[in-house]
């Protein structure tokens, strides 16, 4: 299990800071810092830094192999995130679905796409032993 004294850090490109802040705040992330060239968020307890890098945006994003997100341990948290994304009219890259139906690794998932075409996955495994 993860120690509470560790925070995962992820740096990703963004094309414009204001729209990036708007998207991540609507997602429920807290803006921690803002500079002329980047913004830092509390992303569900971890740190996501969006670096202003309009020349490095993936124009044709695909789910695999590059995306990031949250794996919820409680179904209620997954359901709440999905309801929040719908309520805030956040852009879905892939609507909610069930992957690996009927198998031990079956999980519920949906993908959002941020303003710089970064893909975010949110998922919940029915069998918690499949999280890792």
UniProtKB/TrEMBL annotation:
Name of the protein in its database record: VOC family protein
InterPro entries named in the record: Glyas_Bleomycin-R_OHBP_Dase, Glyas_Fos-R_dOase_dom, VOC_core
Top-rank taxon: Bacteria
Chain ranges of the VOC domain: 6-125
Coiled-coil segments on the chain, per record: none
Annotated PROSITE patterns: VOC
Gene3D superfamilies for the chain: 2,3-Dihydroxybiphenyl 1,2-Dioxygenase, domain 1
Organism from which the protein derives: Ornithinibacillus salinisoli
A Pfam short name: Glyoxalase
